[in-house]
Amino acid sequence: MDEALRLKAVDKTFRGHLSIGSHQVLRGVTLTVPRGVIYGFLGPNGAGKTTTLKVITGLLFADAGEISILGQSVEDRSVRGRIGFLPESPYFYDYLSGYELLIFMGRLQGVPAARLAARIPGLIKAVGLEGKDRLQLRKYSKGMLQRIGLAQALLNDPDLVILDEPMSGLDPIGRREVRDLILAMKDQGKTVFFSSHILADAEMICDQVAILVKGKVVQEGPLESLLSSEVQFWDVTVRGAAGMVPPPGCSVLTRLGTQLLIRVDREETLQDLLDRSRAEGASIRAVVPHKSSLEDLFLSHIPGEGR
Amino acid sequence: MWKTLAGICLIAVLMVGSASLHQDLVALHNTYPSEFRSYYVPSSAYLSVLSLGQQNFWADLVFIWSIQYFDRYAQSVRDTYLFHTYDVITDLNPHFYEAYIFGDLFLSLDKRWDLIYKLADKGLEKNPKNWLIAWDAGTYAFFQQKDYAVALKYFHIAEERNPGDPRLKDFLANAYKYRGDYERSLLYWENLKATNEKSDTEQAHFFTFAAEKNIFDLTIKIDLRDLNAAVQAYQKARGTLPPTLPALVTAGFLKALPVDPAGKPYLYDHATGEVSCQTPFKFRGKYAQW
Amino acid sequence: MASRGDRSTVVHQITALASNTFKEATRSRVFYILLAFAVALLLFSSAMGFMAVGSIRRVVLDMGLSTVSYFSAMTAIFVGVGLIYREIEHKTIYNILSKPVSRTVFLAGRYAGLMAVLLVNLAAMTAVLSLVLAFFGGFTPRVFAAAGYIYLELLILTAVALFFSSVTSPVVSALCTAAFYIIGHTSSALPDLLVPYLTSTWERRLAVGIYHILPDLNLLSINNLVSNNIPTAHGFAIRAVLYTVLTVAILMLASALCFKRRDLV
User: Fold this and answer.
1) What are the sequence ranges of the domains in chain A?
2) % of chain A at pLDDT higher than 90
3) Which residue of B has its CA nearest to C223?
4) What does the pLDDT read at residue C4?
5) Do the chains contact at C2 and A58, CB–CB below 8 Å?
6) Per-residue confidence at C37, pLDDT binned at 50, 70, 90?
7) What is the pTM of this model?
8) What angle do CA C163, C166, C168 make, to 5 degrees?
9) Would residue B15 count as lying in a domain?
10) Which fold has domain A3-224?
11) Any CB–CB contact under 8 A between A93 and chain C?
12) Which of A244, B151, C26, C27 is a good FRET partner for B212, with 20 to 30 A between their CA atoms?
């Protein structure tokens, strides 16, 4: 099978006490994750990303829909032996050391003791916790906890790795390290499915994304096809054109002495502006094209937030 | 650091104040009439349930509580609750031997013989092998109540459950003796002597010694009794007192003329008809009150 | 990788969960406080013994066995009610159930861990009791038998705590488990106290029937027998163990059923 994960019309409603105040969190979530890609599952807070991940890993039970993981149904418990999961803000037993935690998690995965002993040192090194694995978890920083969490998700050499907000609460160094780890996982042939609301990181590493808003997948697909390769607008910095009148279709963003920052959104207008500037004898300091970003795409789906 | 020290001093001062107030409260409490203080123990059915399965432990608790306080309560309290308390204790733990013994002890201080025997009977019924309770009850009957029929009943129960114990035989012999049943008493003394005279322990010596003395005195008493009876019979039949003791034999009122255990003949006063023994009893003074 | 139904994997999983639970419980403060109190009471029982004229040994034995009973029950309740709830509260359960671990195996592992802790606890208390008894010359090997039967009661009590812990918060669980303990020890009041007051035969039969369905934990205790030197009846041991196993099985099944499809929000 060439699909790592497939969700089809998945619904989930949380019932309040005595059926008062029930709340539908997932409304027909449908997405497909091909094998070997890095798939970003994006959405604002409260969209239902964590709920979706919990339904995939068997912590919650969907009310309707199909979920298949690596070709097996979610109801088949053994499939969880082929995936790795890192929950949001992982909490572990703080009296255990990192090493002991990995042994414990490995035994739960059913990894034989010998193989576990062989794999753990490599994993600890891969997540950058060398030398810190014998410390008690209560002494770990947030970044270290995140990394030991990644290590335990990889204990069984899974084909599909599911991560819930893997970069939350990390400093830029930590975020880069996690990004590198995810890329390394892809190099090993694993499929990575992670949820995030930090779009910059997603834009950097994702092959495909899905955007979840209020329990529905509003957009899904490869990143390249979602983001238009056309230039949306140019920002031109012109100096020494104090008296120049910009052609129509430009908007002057800032004026600093004789320096102007002008935004044009059509190529003809750009050529026009460049000609006129040269005619005035002004010098062109910079021409910066802007393509559509993931943030634009994201915000376009939030009512009231679109550009 | 001074703040910590000041805090500790303050706590110490407050504790002294609290302790003296505590003393005052205790003194106040002691002025209440003793009936006021709680003495009621709930019925054993409820206590048994309350104990959550640890009935023996709670029996011990009630027992320890009771032996601390029961001598201080007023008579009216003891009349109502003394037996009830030990009844409850022995309901919780029917094999609580000390409860029966101490219960009977306290009841004896109030001379409640009926309740003593009621508690003892309960103990004997629940503990078919126990003989100490029977012996204990018997001693109250024997020494204090002086009801030798009841004493014999309990001593017999004790002896059935613990046959061969020379102390019990001794008690039985004495009880029969005090009741005036000399023949049976004599049987027990002779048995005691026979079983103990070969043995060389201190206890055996004691019992042999006691048996010999009792046999001696009892023989005299039996003889005197028989002789007096014969004299009365002679007088009734012939109208006069017999002239001598041998006359009783020839007249057919006695089969044979006994001599005292020392071998001396019995003395007879022809004028009064009184028969006496010239050999003194082995038991004299207060020990000869039977 | 874990293959479905692999028996040795299940055993490994249960031992891993149990040893983790063991470590967690022996770091709990409540555990040590209760143990300290129990030891203090056991030593204090010798003072109580002196007050009971003539029967020091028996009072020490009574009080000792009762203390061991009461305190180990309390430990079972206090530590047991947090067994499942803490995992859910601290979200550590997400790491466990997202692995190929069946929910029943998870419950069984936590249960086994706590029973191991209680065994150590009970052994410690019994050792102290034995020392105190030996000091008074009243030691009897039956103390170990009594401890064994206390352990049977603990097996049932912990299973109850586990059941409640998987459905509700620790406070409610503690109350319900304590209620079970009290009912378990007072259900004998039904035939003894209530039935004599009932007039009609079907009322009596109903009361007796209810009594037989309710657990009677008094039946499992031999503390009273040991202190009165009465030997246990022939065939008691095997029946007591069977009764315990059946009750625990019922409770574990109920827990598994309640927990199987529970959403872990």
Assistant:
1) 3-224, 231-291
2) 38
3) B54
4) 47
5) no
6) confident
7) 0.78
8) 100
9) no
10) Rossmann fold (3.40.50)
11) yes
12) B151
